[in-house]
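I have been asked to look over a protein record a colleague put together. Alongside the sequence sits a line of tokens, each denoting a local backbone shape. I have pasted the whole thing underneath without changing anything:
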Amino acid sequence: MHSDVRPQRIAEESAPGDREIAQAFAALAAAAPLSPIEIERRSPRPNDVAIAIAYCGVCHSDLHAARGEWPGMMCPMVPGHEIVGRVTSVGSKVTAFQPGDLVGVGCMVDSCRKCSSCGEGAENYCESEQGYLQTYNGYVKGGDRNTYGGYSTAITVDERFVLAIRHPESQLAAVAPLLCAGVTTWSPLRYWNAGPGRRVGVVGIGGLGHMAVKLARALGAHVVGFTTSESKRDAILALGAHEVVLTSGERGLDGYEQSLDLILDTVGSPHDLDVYLSLLKRDGTLVLVGVPDAPHPSPSAVNLILGRRSIAGSLIGGLKETQEMLDFCAENGIVSEIEQIAIQDIDELFDRMIKGDVKYRFVIDLSTI
């Protein structure tokens, strides 16, 4: 329960300028429960878009960050990088958006815009010293303040980092996780050419994995889902998998050796990679998109050498491919499977996430703030 005491107010930037007040929930200290807070968001500069946030997805990284489980976390911290809402105003030089548009904001709100990665539309791999500017827990240019994310009623973002939403407004809540879970799986599927004639495995059918299954199927690949639980078989097939493999069974992987072109591993805990490397065809790739809290056991070089196989990683996606993913999902009726929640329940829901008690993504309704 939260008291009726007026919440603390914080500014996102130390530079002078007009401010607009947004209501938010923040971790005021590492591992502290999230509490109401007021944010002074900047009024739109010439290239800015001001957004009233309708929904924000809850990513597992929000939990790690808010509870101080990763290094470099800054408090007060307002998590949230799966943001959807409606434009309320735009700066004088904005041409791509106008008030009333449905838009999204993902994991980035800026980058150096000068390096080769930024120039090629891969801002997620920005080569500057600080990398891309995170939507939350990132240092604001020209100031000493933290950026604050989507667990709030409003945000102001440079138009270059705002995405157009073309889904029906009735699907807006279920679109929110596409801004992270969607593009995090879309990017490697596209880079490694998932499509007709390709066999794609998905390990870990959670927030990321369920989107990987949906997207790989829609791209035309033959999709194989891997799970430790027989009870999940029907649900995984319903997401679009052609086959489901029970990895905990005595002979679960028999017959799948050297059968897959690509495997997306979304698991966020250390596990044996050799099990999955052996399932790849010659020249196949195991792509890691889950971030474990400790290193995976070292895989055998033999599994890599004998099949010219690769282990790779992939980080979210650039702006161009994020918009491409959103448009593809709108055209094909793809959204995330969600449970809509009230912001006041966020700490309880963090605990549920730790237990794996979510199918498949929590999304905050910001009208509850």
Observations:
- The chain has two domains: 9-180+336-368, 181-313.
- Confidence is low (pLDDT under 50) at residues 1-5.
- Residues 17 and 42 are 7 Å apart (CA to CA).
- DSSP finds ten helices and 18 strands in the chain.
